[in-house]
Amino acid sequence: NVDTGVVVGTVLDRVQICPTPRTPPQLAHTYASTQLTTAASMGVAGSIAAPTSSTSSTPVMDPAEVKALIRKVNPERLAAVESAAALAEILDEKTTSLVMRALAQNGTKESRSAFASGLKLLKQRLHPLRADPEAETLMQRYHATKARMQGEGAEDLKTAEKTKLRGELMTLARAYAELCRQHEATAAGRTWAQVFGRIERAFAAVAKLDAGSGRSNRAKRAKRAGEVFSRHAGVCRIADAKSVDKHGNAKGTEYDLGKDGAYDGLEIVIIQCYGFSMTEPIAALRGKGFVVHHHRRVVDAKVLDAQLKTASQVWVISGSAQSLQEQHLEVIANHWKRGLGLYIFGDNQPFYTDANALLERVVAKALPSDHKLVLEGNYPGAQTVQARNSDGQNGGFLRHLLTTGIVTLYEGITVARMDKRAAMELGCDEVLRDHDDNLIVVARPASGGLGPLIVDGAFTKLYCQWGDAGSARFVRNCACWLSTIVGNEGGGVAAAEEEDAKGAASANKKLSLEGAFQGECALLCERGPVALLASTRGDLDANTSDFAIDNPLALSRANLGALSRQTLGLKVAKSLLEQGEDPFTRRPVEAVIPAVKLSNPANLRIVSEIVNKVFMGGRLMTRTSFMIFLGVLDALHAMEGEDDDLRATAKFMIDEILDNITSSPEFTEFGPQVPLASAMKGFFEAKDRLVPVRKAFGHVAVMARLLDMRGSMKRPELRTVVRRSLIKTIVSAALKLVKNPDDGGLGVLHKRLDENLYRLHCGCIPVRGTAADPPLRALFAALLGPKETLSLDVAHAEKKFGRLLKPEEVTVIAVALRGYPGSYQTSTEAFVDALAKADSGFAKLWDGHGGAVAAVGAEDGRRAAEKRLSGYHAANAAHKGIPEFVTPLGPSVYRCVCGAWFGDPATPLSAEALEAMKKNRNEHFQKIYKSDVNGYPTRSSSHYPLHRTVQIVVGPGGDFKDAKVCTEAMVRAVAERLLKKNKGDIYGSEVEAEIRAAVESYLRCRAKGMEETVPRKEGDGGDEAKDRADGKTMSTQTKKRKKKSKRNGCQLNSFERRAELERALLLKDGVTPGGTKTEEKEDAR
Predict the structure, then answer these.
(1) What is the pLDDT of residues 644-694, one digit of tens each?
(2) Which of 300, 646, 756, 826 has the most CB atoms lying inside 10 A of its own CB?
(3) For position 71, what pLDDT does the model report?
């Protein structure tokens, strides 16, 4: 069944089933043979149903021949095969040739992939060593000895015992390796190698159908970059431009990517399925030398095929209904597979029908991926964007050859978006995002025989604002790029492709061992060329995420498990690869990475394929793969306790990558390409001090270690950049916490910082005099969560550069973040600059070079933390403590805690008496507490709005309106509200006790059945008092509040009502200023 074959092949490829002594032999046996046979049968059966004589010069297989082949190659028969010799009888040369012919003529990419996987599994199962009981015995003894060294009780082993056990392990490993050699030299071993060698050589020609045919077809359709690109290629802001337009873009076509007239003789075919004038774009293309064939409607497929045979590129401008038929799609697909450039234009829904037909039925078939790349949505544009950084800034374009000479770019009137992950899986580069951060333009360079590809979700740039904001230049650049042979991802692979173009590299893809690293095999203790074993990583999505693409070196720790931590001789490593498993670690072996010179183009191509397989699952993301590999090698080299040969091998490979993989200083394929070592140095030496820290801390730290390892820069200079990167990372985490409402916002940031800086009242209010320097890891946990891993990257960096931030410096950063008064709705770089301007301690730390003299003093951090809680007016000793509630409406309006009286309860409450009493009270509070004119707390007063807050929390409108007993939850709720209000001195050591006392006094009033009302908001009544003092009538605001209060059915806590209730109590108890029934010995409160 054809579908079953696809499913089986796909499932096996996913779960990576590999027969081992621990896998039931019949199960592995059946999987391998079924997969192999089904894949072959898929192609064979297809030749009957769908003859392909029209597209192949090979005669179609005779149906009788097909039936005989299916009878001979079937799952039951292959499942019974126990040796390579038996397999040779089934898959003899003639049968193998027929199977390959069927796979080539009628097989799909999926069936050929399934055949390759099945062949690999069958090869492993029939390896002679698998049937040797001596090999199994050796491995059992090996793992038993290893368990003694690493299992329970291992820590009690004496040094001599450990040495003896290590010797036994080495002896067993050598015996196993020698057994491998012996088997390879036997008749069965030679037969195994010959049979599978013959089948693999036959299949290699078939596999090329899915790998492309190299650069030869492309070379017929495009010109070399050195011939046609201007000297400004890859540069956005042209420094020596004669003049610029209002958007900052250089004026003149000489600042485009391609030279005028340089593309003379190359043809562009334009299929326009939506009507608008193309006069200006076509004139621009002709200015570059292109011959343009413009079709305002879809032409016959045969006519299109004839034109595309000689064309350099084809443009398809989508309409709202599909115009391209299957035969048109097939024609375009065939020529794109032969190197034709493809420019797919769409726009807002529904104007991407033809575009998506091309993406789904042409691009997706040639480049299968987990996520589907399509245009979607209807997003408003009509704005201009500029170059963006990689620190999370929304919108804009990344530096690319397509943006040569462009500082500001028009995005289009309306646009359609794409999914970045889907684009990255296809090997596309992100080019442009609109102002709302929708990805609208991607580009994929030519590779694997496929021509270059651009997908653009805004075709309105072709006729709207054509001459403004870079539109015309962008389109000209796109045309030039599609018709130019440039390096595949840069990354040093360009050198190999140049060799390919000369016809040299394709003829010799044999690994060269000239100059290869000579190390000692960990198993045989013999010196010679060595390699590292690798197993494919499981989380390939993480390696292709936005973060990974921008910061591949930061993924070293996550990918460390991909490599074995021992060096093996190249021959031993290949033997284990053929067996499919490292028997010593019991890990599957997916690849062998040889330690060879990458200056050799063949070596570079071979190693590139391997690292793409290991770190990208085979995706063509070579630079990113090498950068991840480089980070893993750095981690291996830095590990303590590893053997010297492993570290030396890692060092050799690091040097080869740094010297032979190329990049621009921005780590793109665009702009001048230099070895990675030079690119890193240039990145660190950028004049703008923020440039080196735009990458993630883990990425920057690895670069710094590598540069230090090579002596490219002085260590203090590197340490400065690493410190700044760490500071920026902390600041960025704080900014993200505030911006993301799901994480809690500004209040959560402040709370987490306070928890690390001070002892807290009620878990929220900092206590003055308790400031302490928080550990760096505690700050990471506060900002990034308890599962943060940044501290591991910091610890790794500090092994090389020493402590990056001392505790007092961590405090300075935390205080700066806690006290920042401005907006958090900004970019990280702007926020760093704003923090430096707002906080001198942070500025001092950011500018400090981290040398012998510390930029921040030992006490600076705690001093800054305490300063934030200081600056409040200090009341005298007589005014310490708080007045309790006299009634639920508030504390006394007649008396102060110091014993002072503001009025006499014996005096009737006339308007004049009330006004005089209020005036006395307010003046007293202004003098003692530094309150405002109405006696209310201010930012710097020594008292704080405790009573009003208790009324709000505990009163009739609060969460504790029915409470009778003071609880911790009640006290905490009051404290949290006081902190949020942030008025008055709430940071004293007695605040928690004062809150508790106030709540308890309120509840005592409630217990007595006293009148309770919903309190006014802070400041209610203040305007009225101020108006009266100024001789004015009641303010409009106050009138509105009174009306609203009446509508809500609640009473105002008016000064008059409070005085009435308290006067009655005082008179009842006989308390007056001249003498009291309770005597003066009792506290006046």
Answers:
(1) 888 999 999 999 999 999 887 666 555 567 888 988 888 888 777 777 788
(2) 646
(3) 72
Query: Which residue, chain included where needed, has tokens 């306070």?
Result: 754
Distance CA 314, CA 542 (A): 34
Question: Computed from CA positions of residues 581, 583, 587, 592, in that sequence, does the dihedral angle turn out positive or negative?
Answer: negative
Return the exposure string of 86-98: e unless at least 16 CB atoms fall within 10 Å of the residue's CB, then b: ebbebbeeebbeb
> How many whole angstroms separate alpha carbon 500 and alpha carbon 523?
38
Band of pLDDT at residue 502, cut at 50, 70 and 90: very low
> Is pLDDT of 1017 > 60?
no
- Which of 319-323, 673-677, 878-882 has the highest average model confidence (pLDDT)? 319-323
Sign of the alpha-carbon torsion through 547, 550, 556, 562: positive
Query: What are 954's two structure tokens?
Result: 């505990």
Long-range contact set of residues 842-851: C-beta below 8 Å, sequence gap at least 24: 842/812, 842/813, 842/816, 844/812, 845/727, 845/809, 845/812, 845/813, 846/724, 846/727, 848/723, 849/716, 849/720, 850/716, 850/719, 850/720, 850/723, 850/804, 851/716
Whether the upstream peptide bond of residue 1073 has omega within 30° of 0, thus cis, is no
CA distance 738 to 822: 12
Backbone φ and ψ of 189, nearest 5°: -65, -40
How many residues in total does the chain contain?
A: 1085
Cβ-proximal residues to 502 (8 Å cutoff; 6+ apart), any chain: none
Tell me which amino acid residue 618 is: G
By the 8 A CB rule, do 479 and 262 touch? no
The pLDDT score that the predictor gives to residue 209 is 62
What pLDDT digit, counting tens, does each position of 132-170 carry?
888 888 778 877 877 777 777 767 777 787 778 777 877
Cα separation of 752 and 697, whole Å? Answer: 22
The whole-number pLDDT of residue 641 equals 64
Cα–Cα distance, 702 to 631 (Å, whole number): 7
* pLDDT tens digits, one per residue of 622-635: 888 899 999 999 99
Spell out a b/e string for 750-784, using b for 16 or more CB atoms within 10 Å of the CB, else e.
bbbbbbbbbebbbebbbbbebbebbebebbbbbbb
In 3D space, the residue among 446, 490, 478, 205 whose CA is nearest the CA of residue 337 turns out to be: 446
Q: Which residue has the higher pLDDT, 821 or 44?
A: 821
Cα(922)–Cα(912) distance, integer angstroms = 15
Q: Is the dihedral of CA 522, 524, 527, 533 positive or negative?
A: negative
Q: How far apart are CA 685 and CA 668, in angstroms?
A: 17
Distance CA 644, CA 520 (A): 10
CA distance 189 to 203: 21
Compare 494 and 878 and report the one with higher pLDDT. 878
Q: Helix, strand, coil shares of the chain as percentages rounded to 5?
A: 50, 10, 40
What is the rounded average pLDDT of the residues 553-566? 86
Distance CA 982, CA 840 (A): 23
Within 8 A by CB and 6+ apart from 1010, the residues are 887, 888, 1061
Helix locations, 639-762, DSSP H: 644-660, 676-684, 697-710, 715-739, 745-757
The first and second tokens of residue 589, run together, are 């072996």
When pLDDT is averaged across residues 575-596 and rounded to a whole number, the result is 81
Residues pairing with 798 in the sheet: none
pLDDT score at 529 = 93
Neighbouring CB atoms inside 10 A of 974's CB total 25
- Give residue-wise pLDDT tens across range 252-288: 999 999 999 999 989 999 999 998 999 999 999 999 9
d(CA 146, CA 583): 12
Q: How far apart are CA 239 and CA 765, in angstroms?
A: 54
Selection from 510, 551, 989, 545 nearest residue 729 by Cα = 551
Sorted by sequence, the CB contacts under 8 Å of residue 171 that are 6+ apart come out as none
Judged by DSSP in three states, 35 sits in helix
